[in-house]
Amino acid sequence: MRKTFTKYTLLYLALFQLTCCGPTRNLVYFSDLKATENYRTAVTAATVIHLQTNDLLSIRLSSLSKESNALFNEGVLETAIPAASTATTEVIIPANSYLVDSKGYINFPVLGKVLVGGLTKDEATAELTAKIKKYVKSPIVTIRLLNFKITVIGEVNKPSSFLVPTERVNILEALGLAGDMTPYGRRENVLLIREVNGVRSTTHLNLNNKELLDSPYFYLQQNDLIYVVPDRLKEVQASTNTRTITYATIAASVLVALVFNFQNIFR
């Protein structure tokens, strides 16, 4: 009887270890930074924004001529569209806004079609300024990107899309907008999905590693998507309950056997 009791006890303990215990996880960002270390690095990974198809640009001209200002600042007021970050709020597209078409062009007053796709904002500003100088003396052109959007999904507290008015955001700020990762988010495996010039690419980022601070992916680009991968435990919880039910049945059977044998031993 004692051998049977010992056998069931070991079986129960093994089952308990299998169902209740998991591997230790690292929940600390940049955990390879020593507590006493003052880490310094030059900011060389800042992303230069290149204008892309479907970017919405605010373009304004300033000059000494009021007539010229009025002529070139006659952008069309578009209709209201749903905001990317909510299903109920509407965003009014302001005047002096221009959508980059599928070939990289905008349709600008007086100038007509102007190619800006693939250019940085500074390059696009210089291009428009050079063209407008043919009509206006000492023009000042200002370009803003109105729909710099990022999306954060997966194991975060507030998954959503976010408009970034500053046109500059890094991956930590993006996670902050989404309420940070849940305890189930894998800091060592964050997926970045990016589209540039019609090419979609994926990159896995390790937020436990300080090398991310020097990565070209530390700063995000417009329309980037961040997916925080769940850990193994969350995957098991989100899967079908068949395995859980099976384990529970086995555990209950073992427990009944233990109780039965325990009673027989001490009678």
Structural description of this entry:
The protein folds into three domains: 2-24 and 236-265; 56-145, wza like domain (wza like fold), CATH 3.30.1950.10; 149-230, Roll (Outer membrane lipoprotein wza fold like). The strands form four sheets. It has a five-stranded mixed β-sheet. Strands 4-1-7 form a three-stranded antiparallel β-sheet. Helix 1 (2-20) packs antiparallel against helix 6. With 267 residues, the protein is α+β, with helices and mostly antiparallel strands. The chain has helices at 2-20, 66-72, 121-132, 171-177, 232-238, 242-265; strands at 56-62, 81-82, 90-91, 97-99, 105-108, 112-115, 140-145, 149-154, 160-163, 185-196, 199-205, 225-230.
CATH architecture label name of the largest domain: 2-Layer Sandwich
Low-confidence stretches: 76-89
CATH superfamily of the largest domain: wza like domain
How are strands sequenced across the largest beta sheet?
Answer: 9-8-12-10-11
DSSP summary: helix tally = 6
- Would you tell me the overall average pLDDT? 78
Basic shape? elongated
Assign the CATH class of the largest domain.
Alpha Beta
Number of strands: 12
Note the run of SSEs as H and E: HEHEEEEEHEEEHEEEHH
- What portion of the residues fall into strands of 2 or more residues? 15-25%
Give the total of domains: 3
Category by helix and strand content: alpha+beta
As for the CATH topology of the largest domain, it is wza like fold
Distance between the terminal alpha carbons, to the nearest Å?
12 Å
Q: What Rg, in angstroms, do the CA atoms define?
A: 29 Å
